Q: What sequence folds into this?
């Protein structure tokens, strides 16, 4: 298959000293004189924004590029877009390139929307004829028909975004580089952007897509390159790499468990004391990354100092604000532990689907005796539970904590579907 | 088309610039449009600057200081020099600041960077044209005969453009790296005004100074502009040729310096 992009050993070095000083010509002169007279050895403070980056992309491939802030993703796109030059390495690009590194590049406030479409289009590499041909499409996609002849300084931010994206979306380039333009804008606009990019899949264009939104990347890109500290850390199929990527963010505590022996807020008569919480996979291995919808095994370790009959164990999840999310008590399930013997033990809570929104949660843990008068052990906010976003509905729309606390399985069926006939039974 | 940095051919950039010529037209159009959109006086500004400068000069230098004016009325003498001079100085000033005035473009989009200082120089042509029309009006008012020489008036802008572009390329590149350059430009232009025979005719200078002033490439060009207007003033071909050669050399230097520092613009702007 034809290669669209080939990158070999790309590197970009920034010389901190150079960037720091000499912004005044007279300073430069003084330093030059100093060097001549005193032979000052400059200490080389150098930052390699990119190092040894090599990969190739086939024609028509859609590749996601992920990495932490500062990892070098934007630098890579800038080099590929020829905005900045690499220090080492080389690249070969076949075909016309369009870059969406920021929406509305080249917009000038004083000019009207229409004038800016031409200007923006020209900057992005479209010929005037091409822009004229698509002018109506561009205007209607951006939904700014009424305002097309007013200066864009009167536009709202949303309108400017739509206009900028609309022009870029109608570019007919062979290759498209997109850098997180979708991170801003309202939900409706983001959906439009996503749909447009999805259509690119069928157009045969090669797309490199830099994003922080893992669910979006997962749904759009079959292949992902993970840039970490300027180097290619992983390059391959999306699911595995995104999981690895997200694991690094999960709180380390998830891996080793929370030590509860020195818990901050604790009360209770003390026949049983909780010692540790662990978050595990079904097979008992530590679960580093907990995502919405995952199955989870919570292992609660305790020490029984004095035998207790029919203890009522409870594990409750709270939001950061203290709102109750869900409770997991053993008595409700009808599990009766007749007697807990002395010594060390643990209990596993098996949750099939943790259908709560990505967020940070807090855990309360307690156990009542059979009298239910007072606590045997009660820990307040003794553990955090970080739940990360997941592509639960497999649509690339991340589940958003603004929509509620929990999410459920559901379907919508419309009686008068615009596709024509009465379609409940589609 | 291979994009191999190691073997970038020397003249490819010209081909590429041609490919992007529409963008270049857009930049010129944008600069001109914006210059007038943002001002109260709009297109009048093209007339006001040379005209009122001429009026002030005529009063203080022409009348009070009794400056000789090569046989023509002092207003004609000074205005015919001011029109090309003002084109030149605004061209150098605008293009000198053009790169730092477009940082958002430089860091976000690829296009031949050359288009920015180049369009800044050319956007002054419109002003030049309007100011020249006023010159015709003045000539009629002062009963100066309109000869066929006027045909050469627009052609003389070519060496002016070369010189302004060369300087603009150098200054704009320097400006990206050293921000205090932008303060030196107006200062240099001020001094340069006095080193060019605009306010005064060249023959009031003692011979020694005539030579020095003749080294100034603008001298030759301005003198020829004047020769096209003032009757019985001979065209000094020698100094014209000298000026054209110097302009071309400075343009080359400008292009070379610009091309060599172009790579770093996006990083340090």
A:
């Amino acid at each position: 298959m034809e290669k669209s992009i080939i990158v070999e050993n790309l590197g970009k070095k920034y010389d901190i000293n150079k960037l720091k000083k000499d912004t005044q010509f007279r300073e430069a002169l003084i330093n030059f004189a100093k060097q001549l007279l005193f032979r000052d050895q400059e200490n080389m403070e150098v930052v390699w924004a990119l190092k040894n980056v090599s990969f190739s992309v086939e024609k028509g491939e859609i590749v996601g590029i992920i990495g932490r802030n500062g990892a070098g993703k934007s630098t890579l796109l800038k080099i590929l877009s020829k905005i900045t030059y690499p220090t080492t390495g080389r690249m070969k690009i076949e075909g016309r390139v369009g870059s969406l590194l920021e929406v509305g590049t080249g917009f000038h406030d004083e000019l009207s929307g229409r004038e800016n479409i031409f200007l923006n289009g020209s900057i992005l590499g479209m010929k005037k004829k091409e822009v004229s041909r698509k002018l109506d499409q561009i205007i209607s996609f951006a939904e700014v028909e009424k305002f097309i002849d007013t200066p864009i300084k009167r536009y709202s931010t949303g309108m400017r975004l739509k206009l900028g994206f609309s022009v870029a979306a109608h570019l007919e380039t062979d290759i498209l580089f997109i850098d997180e333009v979708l991170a801003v804008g309202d939900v409706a606009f983001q959906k439009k952007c996503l749909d447009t990019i999805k259509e690119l899949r069928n157009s045969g264009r090669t797309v490199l897509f830099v994003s922080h939104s893992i669910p979006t990347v997962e749904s759009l890109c079959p292949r992902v390159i993970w840039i970490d500290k300027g180097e290619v850390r992983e390059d391959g199929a999306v699911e595995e790499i995104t999981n690895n990527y997200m694991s690094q963010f999960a709180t380390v505590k998830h891996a080793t468990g929370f030590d509860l022996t020195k818990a901050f807020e604790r009360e209770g008569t003390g026949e049983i004391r909780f010692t540790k919480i662990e978050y595990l996979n079904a097979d008992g291995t530590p679960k580093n990354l907990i995502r919405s919808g995952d199955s989870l095994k919570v292992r609660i370790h305790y020490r029984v100092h004095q035998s207790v009959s029919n203890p009522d164990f409870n594990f409750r999840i709270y939001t950061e604000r203290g709102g109750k999310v869900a409770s997991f008590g053993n008595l409700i399930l009808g599990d009766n532990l007749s007697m807990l013997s002395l010594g060390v033990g643990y209990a596993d809570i098996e949750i099939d689907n943790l259908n709560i929104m990505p967020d940070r949660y807090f855990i309360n843990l307690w156990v009542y005796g059979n009298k239910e008068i007072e606590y045997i052990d009660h820990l307040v906010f003794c553990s955090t539970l970080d739940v990360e976003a997941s592509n639960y509905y497999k649509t690339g729309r991340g589940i958003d904590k603004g929509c509620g606390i929990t999410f459920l399985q559901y379907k919508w069926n419309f009686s008068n579907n615009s596709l024509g006939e009465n379609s409940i039974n589609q | 088309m291979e994009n191999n940095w190691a073997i970038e051919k020397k003249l490819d950039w010209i081909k590429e610039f041609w490919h992007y010529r529409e963008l270049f037209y857009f930049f010129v159009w944008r600069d001109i449009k914006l210059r007038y959109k943002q001002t109260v006086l709009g297109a009048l500004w093209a007339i006001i600057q040379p005209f009122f400068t001429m009026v002030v000069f005529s009063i203080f230098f022409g009348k009070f200081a009794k400056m000789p004016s090569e046989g023509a009325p002092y207003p004609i003498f000074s205005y015919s020099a001011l029109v090309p001079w003002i084109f030149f100085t605004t061209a150098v000033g605008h293009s000198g600041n053009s790169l730092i005035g477009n940082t958002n473009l430089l860091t976000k989009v690829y296009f031949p960077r050359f288009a920015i200082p180049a369009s800044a120089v050319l956007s002054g042509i419109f002003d030049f044209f309007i100011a020249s029309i006023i010159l015709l009006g003045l000539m009629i008012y002062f009963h100066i005969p309109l000869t066929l020489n006027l045909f050469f008036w627009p052609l003389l802008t070519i060496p002016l453009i070369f010189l302004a572009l060369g300087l603009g390329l150098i200054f704009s590149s320097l400006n990206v790296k050293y921000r205090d350059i932008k303060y030196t430009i107006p200062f240099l232009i001020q001094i340069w005004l006095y080193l060019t025979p605009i306010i005064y005719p060249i023959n009031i200078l003692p011979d020694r100074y005539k030579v020095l002033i003749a080294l100034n490439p603008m001298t030759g060009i301005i003198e020829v502009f004047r020769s096209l207007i003032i009757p019985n003033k001979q065209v000094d071909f020698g100094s014209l040729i000298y000026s054209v050669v110097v302009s071309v050399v400075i343009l080359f230097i400008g292009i070379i310096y610009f091309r060599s520092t172009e790579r770093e613009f996006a990083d340090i702007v």
